[in-house]
């Protein structure tokens, strides 16, 4: 089941304005605190273009200094990465970040994996276009899937789509 927690995450709230100032989006952020040290894992995405190693380096430089200032009493480890080609979604917010990209969803009503291009996102669910089933048979030109029917979701890169490379 997908969470709906990203935008309420305190670290996200702190870092999002910084990352957005670079023209990038935060896909996910997590923090692990152990024995006086903080490890932060940040996944970023560029809009409308591939996310580069240079993007990751810029975010690392900007975010590391901010977190060091906030957590002066902790040793900090920061990892910044791209989402990858077949990212597993963990939060409903990710659908809006990947609008226009192909996604695979395990739909509990259809009882199968379906694939389609994210066309629209709302508070209630996601609308896919060019929807196909597990055997690549067309299911619908357009399909609305409420979040409560989504058991799993992941990016579904198909070379023929000419989809974005994250």
From TrEMBL:
Keyword Cytoplasm carried by entry: yes
Record-level GO cellular component terms: cytosol
Keywords, sorted A to Z: Cytoplasm, Ribosome biogenesis
Annotated SUPFAM superfamilies: YhbC-like, N-terminal domain (SSF75420)
GO biological process: ribosomal small subunit assembly; translation
Protein location: Cytoplasm
Keyword Nucleus: no
Residue ranges of every copy of the Ribosome maturation factor RimP N-terminal domain listed in the record: 15-85
Function statement: Required for maturation of 30S ribosomal subunits.
Family: Belongs to the RimP family.
Protein name per the record: Ribosome maturation factor RimP
Species of origin: Parasphaerochaeta coccoides (strain ATCC BAA-1237 / DSM 17374 / SPN1)
Gene that encodes it: rimP
């Amino acid at each position: 089941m997908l969470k709906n927690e990203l935008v309420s995450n305190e670290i996200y709230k702190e870092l999002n304005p910084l990352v957005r100032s670079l023209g990038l989006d935060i896909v996910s952020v997590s923090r692990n605190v152990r024995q006086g040290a903080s490890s932060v894992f940040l996944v970023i995405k560029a809009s409308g273009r591939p996310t580069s190693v240079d993007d990751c380096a810029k975010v690392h430089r900007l975010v590391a200094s901010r977190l060091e200032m906030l957590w002066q009493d902790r040793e900090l480890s920061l990892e910044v990465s791209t989402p990858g080609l077949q990212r597993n979604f963990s939060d409903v917010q990710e659908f809006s970040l990947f609008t226009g990209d192909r996604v695979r969803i395990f739909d509990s009503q259809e009882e199968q994996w379906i694939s389609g291009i994210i066309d629209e996102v709302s508070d209630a669910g996601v609308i896919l276009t060019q929807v196909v089933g597990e055997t690549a048979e067309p299911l619908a030109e357009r399909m609305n899937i409420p979040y409560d029917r989504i058991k799993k979701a992941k990016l579904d890169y198909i070379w023929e789509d000419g989809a974005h490379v994250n």
